[in-house]
Specification:
alpha/beta, five-stranded parallel sheet, two-stranded antiparallel ribbon, 10 helices, elongated
Length: 270
Protein backbone atom coordinates (compact mmCIF):
# COMPACT_ATOMS: atom_id res chain seq x y z
CA UNK A 1 0.00 0.00 0.00
CA UNK A 2 1.30 3.44 -0.87
CA UNK A 3 1.45 6.11 1.80
CA UNK A 4 0.67 9.63 0.60
CA UNK A 5 1.66 12.89 2.22
CA UNK A 6 -0.70 15.68 1.24
CA UNK A 7 0.88 19.05 0.49
CA UNK A 8 -1.20 22.15 -0.16
CA UNK A 9 -0.87 24.52 -3.08
CA UNK A 10 -0.84 28.29 -3.26
CA UNK A 11 -0.09 30.74 -6.03
CA UNK A 12 3.62 30.12 -6.64
CA UNK A 13 4.65 29.00 -10.16
CA UNK A 14 4.81 25.32 -9.25
CA UNK A 15 1.76 25.58 -7.04
CA UNK A 16 3.26 24.03 -3.92
CA UNK A 17 3.18 25.07 -0.30
CA UNK A 18 3.51 23.15 2.90
CA UNK A 19 0.57 24.67 4.72
CA UNK A 20 -3.03 25.47 4.04
CA UNK A 21 -3.22 28.99 2.54
CA UNK A 22 -6.19 31.28 3.11
CA UNK A 23 -9.03 30.71 0.71
CA UNK A 24 -7.98 27.17 -0.17
CA UNK A 25 -10.86 25.52 1.70
CA UNK A 26 -14.20 24.48 0.33
CA UNK A 27 -17.45 25.21 2.15
CA UNK A 28 -16.76 22.40 4.64
CA UNK A 29 -13.42 23.89 5.70
CA UNK A 30 -11.40 21.14 3.99
CA UNK A 31 -8.70 21.76 1.37
CA UNK A 32 -10.06 21.45 -2.16
CA UNK A 33 -8.76 18.74 -4.50
CA UNK A 34 -7.25 21.43 -6.74
CA UNK A 35 -5.00 22.48 -3.84
CA UNK A 36 -3.48 19.06 -3.08
CA UNK A 37 -0.29 17.35 -4.13
CA UNK A 38 0.27 13.75 -3.02
CA UNK A 39 3.84 12.75 -2.25
CA UNK A 40 4.07 8.96 -2.50
CA UNK A 41 6.61 7.88 0.10
CA UNK A 42 7.49 4.56 -1.51
CA UNK A 43 9.08 6.49 -4.39
CA UNK A 44 11.77 7.86 -2.06
CA UNK A 45 12.56 4.66 -0.17
CA UNK A 46 15.63 2.52 -0.85
CA UNK A 47 14.46 -0.91 -2.11
CA UNK A 48 14.38 -3.76 0.39
CA UNK A 49 17.82 -5.38 0.43
CA UNK A 50 16.64 -8.76 1.73
CA UNK A 51 17.92 -11.63 -0.41
CA UNK A 52 20.02 -9.58 -2.83
CA UNK A 53 22.97 -11.60 -4.14
CA UNK A 54 26.34 -9.90 -3.67
CA UNK A 55 28.46 -9.78 -6.83
CA UNK A 56 31.94 -8.43 -6.01
CA UNK A 57 32.90 -7.93 -9.67
CA UNK A 58 30.04 -5.47 -10.22
CA UNK A 59 30.46 -3.80 -6.85
CA UNK A 60 34.10 -3.24 -7.71
CA UNK A 61 33.21 -1.71 -11.08
CA UNK A 62 30.78 0.67 -9.44
CA UNK A 63 33.15 1.54 -6.63
CA UNK A 64 35.89 2.44 -9.13
CA UNK A 65 33.49 4.52 -11.20
CA UNK A 66 32.29 6.38 -8.12
CA UNK A 67 35.89 7.18 -7.17
CA UNK A 68 36.78 8.55 -10.61
CA UNK A 69 33.54 10.15 -11.89
CA UNK A 70 30.96 12.46 -10.30
CA UNK A 71 28.16 10.30 -11.77
CA UNK A 72 27.60 6.71 -12.91
CA UNK A 73 24.91 5.48 -15.29
CA UNK A 74 23.78 1.85 -14.95
CA UNK A 75 21.81 0.89 -18.02
CA UNK A 76 19.97 -2.28 -18.98
CA UNK A 77 16.55 -3.76 -19.60
CA UNK A 78 14.15 -4.76 -16.86
CA UNK A 79 15.59 -7.72 -14.97
CA UNK A 80 19.21 -7.02 -15.87
CA UNK A 81 20.14 -6.33 -12.24
CA UNK A 82 20.42 -2.52 -12.15
CA UNK A 83 18.42 -1.97 -8.99
CA UNK A 84 20.02 -4.91 -7.16
CA UNK A 85 23.50 -3.55 -7.89
CA UNK A 86 22.60 -0.02 -6.78
CA UNK A 87 20.77 -1.18 -3.64
CA UNK A 88 23.72 -3.33 -2.62
CA UNK A 89 26.14 -0.49 -3.31
CA UNK A 90 24.34 2.03 -1.09
CA UNK A 91 24.05 -0.42 1.81
CA UNK A 92 25.61 1.32 4.81
CA UNK A 93 26.05 4.60 2.94
CA UNK A 94 24.19 7.86 3.37
CA UNK A 95 21.95 7.59 0.30
CA UNK A 96 18.87 9.35 -1.06
CA UNK A 97 16.79 7.26 -3.48
CA UNK A 98 14.22 8.54 -5.99
CA UNK A 99 12.30 6.19 -8.27
CA UNK A 100 10.76 8.00 -11.22
CA UNK A 101 7.51 7.31 -13.00
CA UNK A 102 6.06 8.87 -16.18
CA UNK A 103 4.33 11.58 -14.12
CA UNK A 104 7.74 13.01 -13.17
CA UNK A 105 8.19 14.36 -16.70
CA UNK A 106 6.65 17.50 -15.23
CA UNK A 107 9.48 19.66 -13.91
CA UNK A 108 7.78 20.75 -10.70
CA UNK A 109 6.77 17.20 -9.79
CA UNK A 110 10.30 15.94 -10.39
CA UNK A 111 11.83 18.78 -8.38
CA UNK A 112 9.50 18.22 -5.42
CA UNK A 113 10.33 14.53 -5.28
CA UNK A 114 14.07 15.15 -5.55
CA UNK A 115 13.82 17.62 -2.68
CA UNK A 116 11.76 15.15 -0.62
CA UNK A 117 14.28 12.33 -1.19
CA UNK A 118 17.17 14.47 0.00
CA UNK A 119 15.19 15.88 2.94
CA UNK A 120 14.54 12.34 4.11
CA UNK A 121 18.29 11.70 4.33
CA UNK A 122 18.79 14.85 6.40
CA UNK A 123 16.45 13.39 9.01
CA UNK A 124 13.72 15.87 8.21
CA UNK A 125 10.13 15.21 7.23
CA UNK A 126 10.03 14.73 3.41
CA UNK A 127 6.94 16.92 3.33
CA UNK A 128 8.75 19.83 4.98
CA UNK A 129 10.32 21.14 1.78
CA UNK A 130 10.32 24.90 1.40
CA UNK A 131 11.90 25.48 -2.01
CA UNK A 132 9.66 27.43 -4.39
CA UNK A 133 10.13 25.57 -7.67
CA UNK A 134 9.15 27.45 -10.82
CA UNK A 135 10.88 26.63 -14.12
CA UNK A 136 14.00 24.61 -14.98
CA UNK A 137 15.87 27.70 -16.14
CA UNK A 138 14.97 29.75 -13.07
CA UNK A 139 15.66 26.85 -10.69
CA UNK A 140 19.22 26.01 -11.71
CA UNK A 141 20.82 27.54 -8.60
CA UNK A 142 18.18 25.87 -6.42
CA UNK A 143 19.16 22.47 -7.84
CA UNK A 144 22.83 23.11 -7.08
CA UNK A 145 22.00 24.24 -3.54
CA UNK A 146 19.78 21.18 -3.03
CA UNK A 147 22.59 18.80 -3.99
CA UNK A 148 24.89 20.69 -1.66
CA UNK A 149 22.48 20.12 1.22
CA UNK A 150 22.93 16.34 1.07
CA UNK A 151 24.61 15.31 4.33
CA UNK A 152 28.27 14.35 4.10
CA UNK A 153 29.16 10.72 4.71
CA UNK A 154 32.51 11.51 6.31
CA UNK A 155 36.07 11.42 5.01
CA UNK A 156 36.14 7.65 4.48
CA UNK A 157 33.18 7.50 2.13
CA UNK A 158 30.72 9.62 0.16
CA UNK A 159 26.99 10.19 0.07
CA UNK A 160 24.95 8.94 -2.88
CA UNK A 161 21.87 10.26 -4.68
CA UNK A 162 20.20 7.50 -6.71
CA UNK A 163 17.69 8.29 -9.45
CA UNK A 164 16.01 5.11 -10.66
CA UNK A 165 14.06 4.66 -13.93
CA UNK A 166 15.66 7.80 -15.36
CA UNK A 167 14.40 6.96 -18.87
CA UNK A 168 10.97 8.29 -17.91
CA UNK A 169 12.26 11.87 -18.23
CA UNK A 170 14.54 11.52 -21.28
CA UNK A 171 12.04 13.22 -23.58
CA UNK A 172 11.47 16.30 -21.42
CA UNK A 173 12.69 19.68 -22.58
CA UNK A 174 14.69 20.12 -19.40
CA UNK A 175 16.40 16.73 -19.12
CA UNK A 176 19.72 17.43 -20.85
CA UNK A 177 20.21 20.85 -19.28
CA UNK A 178 19.26 19.88 -15.72
CA UNK A 179 21.11 16.56 -15.60
CA UNK A 180 24.23 18.00 -17.21
CA UNK A 181 24.07 20.71 -14.54
CA UNK A 182 23.60 18.12 -11.78
CA UNK A 183 26.57 16.05 -12.94
CA UNK A 184 28.81 19.11 -13.19
CA UNK A 185 27.64 20.40 -9.80
CA UNK A 186 27.96 17.18 -7.79
CA UNK A 187 29.82 18.02 -4.56
CA UNK A 188 33.18 16.30 -4.08
CA UNK A 189 31.86 14.10 -1.26
CA UNK A 190 28.79 12.95 -3.20
CA UNK A 191 28.09 10.58 -6.10
CA UNK A 192 25.14 10.68 -8.49
CA UNK A 193 23.93 7.20 -9.48
CA UNK A 194 21.54 7.01 -12.44
CA UNK A 195 19.60 3.88 -13.42
CA UNK A 196 17.95 3.58 -16.82
CA UNK A 197 16.62 1.01 -19.28
CA UNK A 198 18.35 2.77 -22.20
CA UNK A 199 21.14 5.23 -22.86
CA UNK A 200 20.31 8.94 -22.45
CA UNK A 201 20.23 11.57 -25.20
CA UNK A 202 23.59 12.20 -26.87
CA UNK A 203 24.57 15.46 -25.10
CA UNK A 204 24.55 13.67 -21.76
CA UNK A 205 26.00 10.45 -23.20
CA UNK A 206 29.01 12.41 -24.47
CA UNK A 207 29.99 13.28 -20.90
CA UNK A 208 31.62 9.83 -20.82
CA UNK A 209 34.49 11.11 -22.93
CA UNK A 210 35.03 13.99 -20.52
CA UNK A 211 35.40 11.62 -17.55
CA UNK A 212 32.24 13.05 -16.00
CA UNK A 213 30.02 9.99 -16.45
CA UNK A 214 30.94 6.38 -15.79
CA UNK A 215 28.80 3.69 -17.44
CA UNK A 216 27.96 0.11 -16.49
CA UNK A 217 25.91 -1.46 -19.27
CA UNK A 218 23.79 -4.57 -19.66
CA UNK A 219 26.67 -6.66 -20.98
CA UNK A 220 28.64 -5.96 -17.81
CA UNK A 221 25.60 -6.65 -15.62
CA UNK A 222 25.22 -10.15 -17.06
CA UNK A 223 26.41 -13.11 -15.00
CA UNK A 224 29.76 -14.49 -16.16
CA UNK A 225 30.18 -18.29 -16.32
CA UNK A 226 32.09 -18.26 -13.04
CA UNK A 227 29.45 -16.11 -11.34
CA UNK A 228 26.80 -18.53 -12.56
CA UNK A 229 28.73 -21.46 -11.09
CA UNK A 230 29.17 -19.61 -7.78
CA UNK A 231 25.43 -18.84 -7.69
CA UNK A 232 24.27 -22.36 -8.47
CA UNK A 233 26.69 -24.11 -6.12
CA UNK A 234 25.54 -21.81 -3.33
CA UNK A 235 22.13 -23.43 -3.65
CA UNK A 236 23.40 -26.98 -4.05
CA UNK A 237 23.09 -27.11 -7.84
CA UNK A 238 25.67 -28.51 -10.26
CA UNK A 239 28.25 -26.62 -12.31
CA UNK A 240 26.79 -28.20 -15.44
CA UNK A 241 23.37 -26.67 -14.76
CA UNK A 242 25.01 -23.32 -14.01
CA UNK A 243 26.90 -23.17 -17.32
CA UNK A 244 23.83 -24.37 -19.20
CA UNK A 245 21.66 -21.64 -17.68
CA UNK A 246 24.27 -18.92 -18.22
CA UNK A 247 24.55 -19.85 -21.90
CA UNK A 248 20.82 -20.20 -22.47
CA UNK A 249 19.84 -17.00 -20.62
CA UNK A 250 22.85 -14.94 -21.76
CA UNK A 251 23.62 -14.31 -18.09
CA UNK A 252 20.63 -12.03 -17.59
CA UNK A 253 20.22 -11.60 -13.84
CA UNK A 254 16.48 -12.13 -13.42
CA UNK A 255 16.49 -15.21 -15.63
CA UNK A 256 19.44 -16.70 -13.80
CA UNK A 257 17.50 -16.31 -10.57
CA UNK A 258 14.47 -17.94 -12.15
CA UNK A 259 16.64 -20.82 -13.32
CA UNK A 260 17.85 -21.41 -9.78
CA UNK A 261 14.36 -21.36 -8.25
CA UNK A 262 13.01 -23.55 -11.05
CA UNK A 263 15.60 -26.17 -10.09
CA UNK A 264 14.34 -26.45 -6.55
CA UNK A 265 16.50 -23.92 -4.70
CA UNK A 266 14.87 -21.67 -2.15
CA UNK A 267 13.38 -18.42 -3.44
CA UNK A 268 15.30 -15.20 -3.25
CA UNK A 269 15.20 -11.75 -4.78
CA UNK A 270 17.25 -10.53 -7.76
Amino acid sequence: MRMAITLYLDGDPCGIDLYEPPGSDDDTGNPTMENRFHLLEDKILTPDLAGIIERPRLTGLLERSARTHPATLITGRTGSGKTALAAGFVRGRNAAWLRLEPSENDWCTFARYLEAAILRRTGRDPSSGSIRWSTPKADRIKVIDLLGSMPSAGSASFSVVVIDDLHHVFDTEWFVDIFTLMILAVPEAMHLLLLSRSKPPNPLWRLRSKQMLGVIDEAQLAFTPQEAVDLFTRYGLSRYKAVDAQTREYGRASRMMESVTARGARAFRC
